[in-house]
Every structure is written in C-alpha cells, then in structure tokens.
Amino acid sequence: MLEFHLSTIIFTIINLLVLYAVLRKVLFGRVNEVLKQRAAQVQQEITSAQDSNRQAQELKEQYEGKLTDARQEAAKIVADAQTRAQRVYEGKVAEAESEAKRLRSEAQAQIASEREAMLQGARKEVASLALLAATKVAGRSMDGADDKAFVDEFLSEVGERA
Amino acid sequence: MDAFKEMLLEELGTPTAFTIPLLGGIDVSQSVVVSWIVMAVLIVAALCLTRNLKVNNPGKVQMGLESAVQFLNGFAEANIGEHWRSFAPWLGTVALYIGFANIIGIFGFAPPTKDVSITAALAIMSMLLIYGAQFRYNGLLGGLKRFAEPMPLLVPINLMEVAIRPLALCMRLFGNVLGAFIIMEMLKFVVPVLVPAVFSIYFDLFDGLIQTVVFVFLTTQFVGEGIKAEE
Fold first, then answer.
1. Does the CB of B67 have a partner CB in chain A at under 8 Å?
2. Which of A20, B7, B64, B205 lies at a CB distance of 3.0 to 4.6 Å from B93, suitable for a disulfide?
3. Is B221 within 8 Å of B183 (Cβ atoms)?
C-alpha cells in the first residue's frame, strides 16, 4: 500500500512533463493567444473610438464657427438692406415734400399774380368809371394827365381804406 | 469476510500492468496506464476544444474555456505576483491531471492518485517548482536569504519545510483518495446498488475536486511565498 516504485515515480514525472508541454502549447497557449488578441483589439477599438470622437468634436466646432459666421453675415446683409431702404425711403419722402412745397408755392404765386391782375383790372375799371362819372359831374372831359393822377390818388386812398 | 479482506488488500495494492523488457524489466504499474488514459483524454479534449478559436463571436465552449483560463491566470497572478505567467500553465496542467485522476473512479478505473508513487512524483515536481522558482527569481544568495524570512530564528523550520511541504502534499492527496477509494469499495461490497452512486458523488467527485484545489492552491501559495516581493 505504501510502497514507492521508482519506475512509477519516473513515469509520472515524464507523464506530467509531456502533458505540460502539450497542454501549454495546445490549451493554454491557444486560449491565451486569443485572449491577448482580443485585449489588443479592444484596446485598438477604444483608441479609434476616442480618435473619431475627437474628430467629430473638431468638426462640430468647425461647423458651429461657420454657422456663427453665416449668421453674422446674414444679419449684416439684412441690416445693410434695411439702412439702404431707409435711405431710399427718406430720399423719396424728401423729394415728395419738396415737390409738394414747390407746387404749393407755384400755386400761391399764381393765385397772387392773378389776384394782383384782377385787382389791377378792377382798379382800372373803377378809375375809368370814376373818371367817366367825374366827367359827367364836371361836364367836361377829364382826360388830362393831371386828372388821371388826381383820380389815382383818390382811388388809392379809397383802396387803402377799403 | 475473508474474501472481502483479500479483495480489499488486492485493490489497495499497486498492481503491475505489464513489464517493459528493457534494462532487466521496467515495471509499468496500473496507475501509470490509467494516467496515460487520463492524459490521452485531456490531450484529445484540449485539441478538440481549442480547434477553431475565434477572436470575435466566440462560441459557448470557447467562452467557458476562456473564463476557465482567465480564472487560472487571475489565481496565479494573485498568489504568485509579477512572474505568474510562467507558472499558470503548469498549475493548470497539474490541476487538470489530478482532477481527472481523482474523479476517474466514477468511470470504474482505480484512481491513479491512490498510488503513493504518483502523488510522490507530483509532490517532487511541486517541490522542484517551489524551490526552483525561489532561486531562479532571487538568485543564489537571495534564494538562500529567503530561508531566513520572516525572521532568522525560523531558518531550521524553513529548511525542514523543504522536505515537509512535498511530504504533506504527497500524503494528503494520497490519503484522501485512498480513503475515499476504500470507503467506496466497502460500500460497493455491502450495498452494490444505488447507495454507492450517491456516495460516489461526495467521495469521488467532491472530495476529488477539493483535493485538486488544495494541492494546486498550496503549491501556488508556496511558490508565491518563495518569490513574491516583500511589500
């Protein structure tokens, strides 16, 4: 029962060494290789994911910058257009105002001149009527220069009072 | 009763399977032949299971295999430290061999580990591993200094351990497997049906695996003690 056989011991040591050699190559070697490859792959994937993440971040920043630029550009364009339109509008308004003013002054001038002419005509008429009446009254012709001056003076006195 | 005693004694012996007619006859005991069977099974299983390993989308078998190897690696790393890589395959090999040798009783073979010569060989290899590693990684002087740790007072005990550790490893495994084997033989003699099957679960399977774990764990522990850097 408790007998040590040298041959069994030696055989077992050889057995163990052979089994070790085979299993180390076939079992542990292969499985560890796969585990190592997987670890390397995971590492690589993490790295590439981080890389693309960083790239995406950069692109995003770029786009955001561009977007801000574009927005500013648009705002500038709109503001430009507004000021231009404002200027044009003001110009038009001023033009219209001056036109209106001109028309009104023209009309006023015309009215004034017509009134003047009418007054002139009326005065002449009155003067000749007055002369006629005075001729009748005086029983003589009053067509001398003195008479005329006299009548005019009278008329202007009357006109001032009227 | 006499017949039973005779049968038991016969079972307990280590019969020679055949003799190689070389150098005046080399005895090949039955336990060595069973060991060869165990080895053949292990090698064929390893060859079949590790065929076609894939880095992506591993199958269920491969995942099981991988987690087993990872467990072994983690166990070796935790107990041995930075040089674990060279030890893990040996420890795994020993664990697989002892494990299968212990539970082969289920399949009707006499477990090779009930032969004290086999466990002695295993223990010798463990001893060589433990003290080989101690000198390999600490150098000759550093390896010798390790015998004076944790304090010089323990030098005699540490030196005695060189012999005691393998002896304990050898006898523990041998005694457990032999004891389980004797109990199972007696049970089979007394109640041939059903009852042995139930007890076989404990004595062949559970005890066999426990002893495997104990043997490998202690070997790893001793290796780690010999080479681990002091924290």
1. no
2. A20
3. no
